[in-house]
Amino acid sequence: MHDARRPSDSDDRYPGYDVLAKWSGPSWNEKTREVISRRLALAPEPKFFTAEEFATVTAIAARIIPQPLGRPPVPIAALVDHKLDHAIMDGYRGSGMARDGEAWRVGLKALDAEATRAYGMRFSALSEPLQDVLLRRAEAGELKAPEWSGMRSHDFFKMRMARDIVLAYYAHPTAWSEIGWGGPASPRGYVRLDFGERDPWEAAEAKQGHEDKARRSNRHVR
User: Fold this and answer.
1) What does the alpha-carbon distance between residue 179 and residue 79 come to, in Å, rounded to a whole number?
2) Which residues 6+ apart lie within 8 Å of 80 measured at CB?
3) DSSP calls for 192-204
4) Could you tell me if 200 and 192 are in contact, meaning their C-beta atoms sit under 8 angstroms apart?
5) DSSP assigned state of 159
6) How many CB atoms are located within 10 Å of the residue 167 CB?
7) What is the DSSP string of 7-70?
8) Long-range pairs, 214-217, Cβ under 8 A, ≥24
9) Nearest partner of 85 among 61, 54, 62, 113, judged by Cα
10) Cα 66–68–73 angle (5° rounding)?
């Protein structure tokens, strides 16, 4: 769905910024550090998914959110696995959708079945272009194998797969650094809330031709 081989500095809007530099500063309290520590310590071994399901989730995540080269990737599949293992749910679900965990199991089984029927191998073993073909067909609601068990493929794509993967990515500090976010900022909070204003403890966005200025500023954000 996207080119996963983009260089790490292709869109560095917040050069020199690392949200983890706030760790011991006044922006984060102990509860914030505790929550972030758990996210950073997630093991790569699944607890909710089987090994085969986990491989499929990992492959899907790599196509929906390709990550830059040159930095450790956000462990998207592990974050989704953690959410499901701890039954952290939205509190609502669309018509025709099973509960979150069951919907994932049905969807992954169906996607692997579609891949095997069409190309003779599981989704995670397919080339990236073929994975994209199946994901686009799922998004369009064109996948209708019996393994979907009445769940519409476009509902799974929109309500579970894409949603959970995107939320997992942007729940991780690595993504916060990428978008210039400072995290919960508790207890300090944010003060300058008008458009175009930022607090001194927020990341500076690089303006064309002034990247070094933003980099110098971001190295001191705490």
Assistant:
1) 19
2) 57, 61, 104, 164, 165, 168
3) --STT---TTSPP
4) no
5) I
6) 14
7) -TTTT-SSTT--GGGGTTSTT--HHHHHHHHHHHT--SS-SSS-HHHHHHHHHHHHHHS---TT
8) 214/14, 214/15, 214/16, 215/15, 215/16, 216/16, 217/16
9) 54
10) 80
Q: What is the pLDDT of residue 125?
A: 98
State the Cα angle at 89 between 161 and 101, rounded to 5°: 55
**Which residue reads 């049905």 in tokens?**
106
What are 171-189's pLDDT values in tens digits? 999 999 999 999 888 888 8
Token couple for 128: 């990236």
- Tell me what pLDDT residue 183 has: 87
For residues 20 and 56, is the Cβ–Cβ distance under 8 A? no
Q: Are residues 181 and 22 in contact, defined by beta-carbon separation less than 8 angstroms? A: no
Q: d(Cα 96, Cα 50) in Å, to the nearest integer?
A: 24
* Single-letter amino acid code for the residue at 6: R
By three-state DSSP, how is residue 208 classified?
coil
pLDDT at 6 over 50: no
